[in-house]
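Lecture 7 notes: from sequence to structure.

We start with a single chain of 217 residues. Read the sequence below before looking at the structure.
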Amino acid sequence: MSPLTPESEVGRAIAAARLIAVLVVDELESAIPVAESLLKGGVTAMELTLRTPVALEAAAAITAAFPEMMVGIGTVIFPKQVDDAVSAGAAFGVSPGVNPAVIQRAAEAGLPFGPGIMTPTDIDVAIQEGCRLLKFFPAESSGGLAHLSNIAAPYAHLGLKFIPLGGIGSANLMSYLNHDLIAAVGGSWLAPRDVIRAKDWVTIEANARDAMTAIQS
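Now the structure, written as tokens:
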């Protein structure tokens, strides 16, 4: 399996989902309810970040319970975490930055992988490793769509697509999704960490439904 590209099976599925919920799950018991709430609201893709001890167990539980949910693993910053993500059944992996060793391990393990970029140098390193669907992070604080358009311009002939994360919410969601560089958008506003901790599944479902309604309209 090649690195993550817009034309790959996983790349097309991410683009079809349009929205990726970025989650930090502290308690394993929250995994199933949060996934169920997102699905009820129409969100079919998520990135579970490796920021808590239960993240991998949560990913495995969600993958087993809800095959219709595309579960990715985020914050993959060491090669061994690639193997952990594969063992948990992850559909894809992403990282906050560009680490060739991690990208190469993902290719060896058959895990579609999208590194995080913020500069032309980041993009250059990523494309040398065969990546064409890239995470743009942190999106808003680094200049948003104007910045992305500028740094992506020299690579336009390569057909790159991006998944922006960081500072995106209901107010600017559609401005990103309507841009031709964007495959899908990721965000933590759908299921914030404190809301998950409070087990407020109603709010998470409502956030998901509001976002998907905006996208579909």
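The chain has one domain: 9-216. Keep this in mind for problem set 3.
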